[in-house]
């Protein structure tokens, strides 16, 4: 058992299905809790092992499709495992991390704005935004750009296959950790505060339009933050950004009872909202540029190297 636990990979053959599943359970129980066990099989006697592992991969072969149907992932050849792990698996983890962070950011920033608004009015239970704005913020106004992150990739597939060390970076869990969560919470607090206090300072005489001012700056901030996080642009990402902003413009025209169009069309409103948005986003763009120049991540180095090569 000690040899099995210390082994980086284990091949189990000429064993019963129960014995294969037992080996998988031993690895899950006695190895480091951060390690995930992946079981690969191609026959019906591998079903128990596949289902016992954290991740099961079934190979469609001469022995039938029992393993394939019971697995989390199905492949036709064992050689496809390399691309499944190093390309699709890595991209899936990176995209899931980005999507989770933006969902956190989208919820925290509007909560911070509501908290600041309530504190100014002695914590009276007054909602900053009405119901349709909150629903629109979580759906049509920000949904398309945020979910377009599932198309993002930091390096092309050929580079990911050429440098398998990139996959090893995932084991450190740096893309989605307590550190990144805390960082995005701080970003949300800063941006929410910048939008609210910027609106109070620049629009002191037009406080009656606080909803239109802050909500417009909030939508622009979200769209710019998604653009900041994208590493490889896709056509649908551009469409998502444009479509979300267009939906917001159309809602202003449709819900004229809730928006003062004359005020929104004024130059005074436009330049001040642009200033508030720049204050909330520009420092992050500068920090990202400085990081790319002085301490670029490994995928940026590989992309630059492949371009020069």
Automatic annotation (TrEMBL):
It is a multi-pass membrane protein. One of its GO terms (cellular component) is endosome. GO terms for biological process: endocytosis; phospholipid translocation; retrograde vesicle-mediated transport, Golgi to endoplasmic reticulum. Residues 69-296 form the P-type ATPase C-terminal domain. Pfam families: Hydrolase_3 (PF08282), PhoLip_ATPase_C (PF16212). One of its GO terms (molecular function) is ATP hydrolysis activity. The keyword Membrane applies. Keywords: Magnesium, Membrane, Metal-binding, Transmembrane, Transmembrane helix. Coiled coil: none annotated. The chain crosses the membrane at residues 103-126, 132-151, 181-201, 207-229, 236-257, 269-287. It is found in: Membrane. Its main location: membrane. The keyword Manganese does not apply. This is P-type ATPase C-terminal domain-containing protein.
